[in-house]
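Minutes, project check-in
Item: structure for the 411-residue chain
Input as provided by the requester:
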Amino acid sequence: MTSDSSPTIAIIGGGAAGFFTAVTAAESNPLAKIHLFEKGRRFLTKVKVSGGGRCNVTHACFDPADFSKRYPRGSRELKAAFHRWQARDTVQWFESRGMKMKAEDDGRMFPITDSSQTVIDTLTDAAKLSGVSLHPNTGINEFHPAPSGIGLTFENGETVLYDRVCLAAGSLKGSSLPNSLESLGHTIEPLVPSLFAVNCSDQRTDGLSGVSVPNAAVRISGSKRWHSGPLLITHRGLSGPAILRLSAWEAREAHSADYHFPLEVAWTGETNRERVLDTLRDWTTKSAKKMVKNACPYALPQRLWEKLLDAAGAAPSNPWSQVPKSQIQSIATEISGSTFSITGKTTNKEEFVTCGGVRRKEIDFRTMESRIVPRLHFAGECIDIDGITGGFNFQAAWTGGRIAGLAMANG
């Protein structure tokens, strides 16, 4: 324990949120003694593998209200938080430290080097320059609130008292810390996977692994919500941004169904069957003499088009003028809402996120401090906040870390 002007601060978790919390606190109060603890032997491991090793740092959307709409859980709280630290601030922070960034056509932002190591080096250099003490291979088992701080019990049995503590340990799945938090009065919302691909075995996709469409729409049958984006057929089933967005928004529903549910796919993004039917009817006149398999009215991959025709019972060698009305209707159904039986999930290792964590109502998002345990703060994925793919989860980590770091350094 030290004086108020030179607090001792412990951050649990050496990932994106933990590093940003630590660096923010250290730069804001050079007198503070900042300790960053990581249970594993390496720091920033998720940053390393994210985005295929490129690290999708944030997203090129600079309106806090619009940005916050990308979070199935935490949208309201983050909307206010993004007014304090948003994507533009993140870009400026990294670029001011020599890490230039670029935005791709879909809005994802990466270091111009296309290497996650650049992000790791930037954060590590900032931590060392600001005097953050890094402690790998150091796990924490319990929290012990005291009148003037928080005691941490380490895995070796030692307990040390700190003025302030921030939990930024990423997913709480498999951690012993939820038990300690619950014993203090906190609530842990159920921890279930988000951002996953789905498994299915179907003749319409058999042999099409690697085939993709640029803008599909998908939904769990019976749901009113469609999720759009590129879709990829894999050797196990379906993946791509459209599926990952669905898995984020429907994480709890999919978990409740044990990942067995009917999934509808609108291959062109057009979910209105009648509009597709009108297009096909016009097509039978415009392309009356052309063979069905060689003349698709939509920009679908040839092999996928032939599979959909087969599923609709249409003879691919017939001219469009000879396709019966019943088959036209079946083709429209396949294009606007092919139904697949999902039989499980496949973790997307680059993007894996956990839905659930510390209940948001129990956190003051102006400081990221617990409303139940004074001097205990939170940042990152350990909170019941998660976003869709595209840099949104990292931005939530940067924002929460920034707010927590400032509050702890100057609290």
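Outcome recorded: The chain has two domains: 8-192+355-410, 196-347.
No further action items on this chain.
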